[in-house]
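Quick one, probably user error.
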């Protein structure tokens, strides 16, 4: 059976993040990718210039169309932008009994542009977090979701992850890419154990789409039937190689994308 995953999120007109990164990741990892577009962004490697939200009823129509026909085995949720979108996505996931949901809580772009309006954060906590298998915040996103300051070490990362578990999600992968030091450490934390996912920190200038790519890689693994720990380990290895090869790409004048197809190009 063909492994199929759906990405629910925003479009990146420069192709490095969002739905475009999700579909590239699915393809690179041998998974058929479908999509539900929640927002259109006018952006490039230098920043986000404009955001056009897709009407909520049309977001729901896309969800119904995809789930009623395709055998979806994993879901990646990214940019939801506003509360109305969050509400219809939550309703759609419940109606179609979606499982193996990976949430990348896209709040701020790599460029620093905000992609989730402030009053939608509570809706994200209340309506989406309790429905997902794993949420994958970076350090600034974890701080915003928990209402605390950015974690400075592994112990503070774990504390924030457990605060997110208390909101109802089953697992948290808190990412340390925004940290410092030679080690880029992510922590996969469930209610009973902690898994350290470590890689050597890579000095690369092209890091656009790293969060989208990692969460999509986890969803791809889940779509192929891997358990979460194995999917997370394989996703960490994939994003590490994509970052290591990223500076081979010469795209744009700002933060270029990671190299999704480094194995083949």
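Nope, works fine. Designed sequence:
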């Amino acid at each position: 059976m063909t492994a199929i995953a759906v990405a629910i999120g925003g479009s990146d007109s420069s192709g490095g993040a969002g739905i475009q990164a999700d579909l590239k990741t699915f393809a690179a990892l041998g998974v058929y990718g479908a999509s539900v577009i929640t927002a259109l962004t006018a952006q490039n490697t230098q920043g986000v210039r404009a955001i056009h939200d897709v009407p909520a009823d049309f977001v729901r129509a896309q969800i119904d169309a995809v789930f009623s026909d395709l055998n979806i085995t994993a879901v990646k949720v990214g940019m939801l932008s506003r509360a109305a979108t969050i509400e219809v996505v939550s309703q759609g996931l419940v109606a179609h009994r979606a499982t193996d949901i990976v949430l990348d809580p896209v709040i701020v772009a790599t460029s620093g542009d905000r992609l989730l309006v402030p009053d939608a954060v509570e809706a994200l906590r209340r309506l989406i977090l309790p429905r997902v298998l794993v949420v994958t915040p970076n350090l600034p996103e974890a701080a915003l979701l928990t209402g605390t300051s950015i974690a400075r070490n592994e112990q503070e990362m774990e504390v924030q992850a457990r605060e997110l578990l208390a909101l109802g999600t089953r697992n948290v992968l808190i990412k340390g890419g925004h940290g410092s030091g030679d080690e880029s450490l992510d922590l996969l934390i469930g209610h009973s154990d902690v898994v350290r996912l470590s890689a050597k920190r890579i000095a690369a200038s092209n890091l656009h789409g790293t969060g989208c790519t990692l969460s999509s890689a986890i969803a791809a693994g889940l779509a192929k039937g891997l358990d979460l720990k194995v999917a997370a380990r394989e996703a960490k290895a994939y994003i590490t190689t994509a970052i290591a090869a990223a500076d081979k790409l010469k795209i744009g004048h700002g933060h270029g994308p990671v190299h999704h197809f480094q194995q083949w190009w």
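The mean pLDDT is 93.
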